[in-house]
Amino acid sequence: VLYIMNTKIAVAKGDGIGPEIMEAVLRIFAANNVQLEYEFVEMGKSYFDAGHSTGMTAAAKDTIEKLGILFKGPMETPKGKGVKSINVTARKVWNTYANQRDFRTLNGVETVFSKAGIPINLTIIRENIEDTYGGIEHLLTYDVAVGRRIITRPGSEQVIRYAFEMARRKGYTKLACGHKANIMKLTDGLFLEVFQEVAKEYQDIESSDIIVDDLCMKLVTHPEKFQAIVLTNLQGDIVSDLCAGLVGGLGFAPSANIGDNISIFEAVHGTAPDIMGKGIANPTALLLSGILMLRYMGFTKNAATIENALLYTLEQGVHTGDFGDKAIPSSGTQAFADAIIANL
Ligand code: NAD
To answer: Which class of enzymes does this protein belong to (predicted)?
Structure first.
């Protein structure tokens, strides 16, 4: 069901470093003869500034809804009270209920775990719509602020089911549910209850649950013990950034926002305004997101070839300035992409 037969996708280059890293990734796709057509859509901060409150034109929305897949660069969040993030709006508008983030050890990207020879290969599935992200907050008095947290059975079920299906597809043998049901007995309690119900249908996957604070401790002491973890929105947000740190930081963190009709593939990082236009941004996270997208769409051979070329390039020590061996001079964004292309 997950394989989309479309060969045309919508692409939004994004703001800040977005256009630079998107150019690098699409050049790598072209060099590997990926049979995808792109329809570039008008989406981002400048469209918000031009009066489009969702950060995209009506034509962009139509195109994305027609094509079902959006490959996007990072987008700047407009400043000001009451103004919503373009990225969060897009996830809500299209009900992309599962946020999948893959984290793995990459040779050439040095971390405390790689130095200790401990390989990491784990996936976080974060619920992407509910929880505290509705932003339903108010002041009860000048000194007391109240926020609402919403967890629903259907909302929990769709993301948990996705997590089990993904675990099967990736050949994982276990899936854990992270939660705080010992304290939030109704909200996290409901999420955990749904997890345990759905788990009965997936006897081939070993299911377990773990309290989120204990999970954080175990992730930083024994990350190799985990394969896949499903969590509610806010806890998943925090735990997935923790996992990004385990494998070398935001430059290596891809993500997929999966919905039934529309899915969005993007890097976890933002627009990096401090380095935009300098040609030094690391395109790896966007490339890894693109590889996730290719696999999702069934372009498994392209995905494997490009992934291997990336891994080999990293192993050779080729790197952008944000990581890698300082003794080897760093490459700019496009030179890094050229090195990957040469290794395809
Ligand atoms: P950021 O991720 O843009 O930058 C944090 C730090 O990481 C900066 O020092 C930056 O230079 C560095 N960095 C990030 N990506 C990098 C890359 N590919 N290569 C090298 N270095 C990289 O976070 P921020 O500064 O908090 O946010 C900037 C803007 O991006 C904000 O408007 C924010 O709302 C937005 N944002 C968008 C998304 C998205 O589009 N999904 C995600 C996060 C933040």
So the answer is: oxidoreductase
Confidence (pLDDT) at 81: 64
Which residues, 6 or more positions from 325, have their beta carbon under 8 angstroms from its beta carbon? 110, 317, 319
Q: Which residue's alpha carbon is at the smallest distance from atom 26 of ligand 1?
A: 270
Torsion of CA 66, 68, 69, 75, to 10 degrees: 70
- The amino acid sitting at 230 is V
Q: Distance, CA 204 to ligand 1 centroid (Å)? A: 39
Top mutation candidate among 271, 289, 323, 336 for ligand 1, by most atoms within 8 Å of CB = 271
Token pair recorded at residue 90? 């897009």
Q: 69-72 and 263-267 as β-strands: parallel, antiparallel, unpaired?
A: parallel
To the nearest whole number, what is the mean pLDDT of the chain? 93
Which one-letter DSSP state was computed for residue 331? P
Instruction: Assess contact for 265 and 292: CB atoms under 8 A.
Output: yes
- Degrees, nearest 5: CA angle 300-306-310: 140
Residue 322 CB neighbour total at 10 angstroms: 17
Q: Dump pLDDT digits (tens) for 60-90.
A: 999 999 999 999 999 998 877 667 788 888 8
Distance CA 327, CA 171 (A): 38
Q: How far is CA 52 from the centre of its chain?
A: 25
- Atom index in ligand 1 nearest the CA of residue 274 equals 11
Label residues 271-287 b or e (16+ Cβ within 10 Å = b).
bbeebbeeebbbbbbbb
If we measure between CA atoms, which residue out of 116, 150, 158, 114 comes closest to residue 132?
150
Does this model's pTM top 0.90?
A: yes
- Residues in contact with 20: Cβ distance below 8 Å, sequence separation at least 6, in sequence order: 276, 277, 279, 281, 283, 333, 334
